[in-house]
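ok so I'm stuck.
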Amino acid sequence: QVQLVESGGGLVEPGGSLRLSCAASGFRLDDATIGWFRAAPGRERAGVSCMRGSDGSTYYGDAVKGRFTISRDNLKNTVYLQMNNLKPEDTAEYFCAIRWIAPAQEMCVVGENMNYWGKGTLVTVFS
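replied:
not stuck anymore, here's the structure
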């Protein structure tokens, strides 16, 4: 049974950092493309960063490029999103999701046809 469980959200001041985790079970990270998406009030859900498991290729949305880093630990079957220099506009519910076969950029940019979603973790950036 596939499960994705996010954690690591919280309250942080602008300029601060958080690391989100997505603990995966029921499959191997190498066998899927996994991505982080976020949904803020009044905004469409957007792809933040995605990684294809088979080759480690990554994609970052323009809003987070240079500030966020996606990584994985195959032994823990966990994907991380290191978020640095956080801004108020990063405030959102963050979700991880997987697609079995997809390039990282396509998964993040198109943002449809996910096979599984996690329940999300809330990030609030405030001063």
